[in-house]
Specification:
Distance between the termini: 31 Å
Bound molecules: zinc ion
Low-confidence stretches: 1-38
CATH class of the largest domain: Alpha Beta
Strand content: 15-25%
Number of helices: 11
Structural class: alpha/beta
Largest sheet: 6 strands, mixed
Radius of gyration: 20 Å
Number of domains: 3
Strand order of the largest sheet: 1-2-3-4-5-6
CATH topology of the largest domain: Metallo-beta-lactamase, Chain A
Helix content: 25-40%
Oligomer: single chain
CATH architecture of the largest domain: 4-Layer Sandwich
Mean pLDDT: 89
Amino acid sequence: MTRYGFKISIKSCIHQSLRGSTKRDILRFALICTISISVMKVVPIRALNTNYIWTISTDQQATVIDPGEASQVIQYLADHRLKCSNIIITHHHPDHTGGVRALLEHFPHTPVYGPDLTHLGIDAIDVSKEKNIQIKGFAKPWQIMPTPGHTLDHLSFYYPGHLFCGDTLFSAGCGRIFEGTPEQMFHSLNLIKNLPPDTLVYPGHEITLNNIRFAESIDNNNPDLAHYKKETIKRLNQDQPSLPSTLDLELKVNPFLRTEVSTIQDKISKQVSTDISTPLDTFIALRKLKDNF
Ligand SMILES: [Zn+2]
């Protein structure tokens, strides 16, 4: 089970709007709050080695993101009396798409939103050229963010307060660059950096601790990182996911989002024996170091 993005805003909302209200008003307001919290419940389903298939349930409907496998999703939906109403795909890799066909067999006619997936035999609605899309079951539009770098077709999906970023941004790290250029990946991460800081971040893999260990090797005097490591170990030891993260936290602990920080630039310069002073060059050197970590 994940944390909810609505908590703080609802709390302050209650304080502001219930001054002088009757008990009945408060009860009615609490009911409205409960409904709006239940509007969006986001749960990770484990798959393959480290994948998370994020599942958003709204009433009896579920939106499934990057189903690399199907059986555990079908089981989860059955256990919670949910129907699969939408499938969202961030990119074409098999660990993010391998379960789509089986899910469609089980839930025929479910729309699949993503990049063009015809080469995989998946009839997806190609949203790569769209800025915003309306998805059934959601009150607000989803923002489509092209985030190439890990793959060329990679999309991130932003629903106000929630970012589903596949293999572009990980907690304390970022995806490997397989198809795009470092410049593209750097630009994609910068797009994400500009989202509201309280955005909940839902990456596609549980590799946070490994990323933290790498981050420590170049940002070892960062108290936020040290604290995050402790918290992450605690969560993982309790068999809980380390995710979702928040963008605010990532800006404090993720070296790939901190390439303008001079102490990180200095450390990288020493490690690669070259004077590195721009955020892009820092990012390129960081990514290379992580590839061999
Ligand atoms: Zn991938």
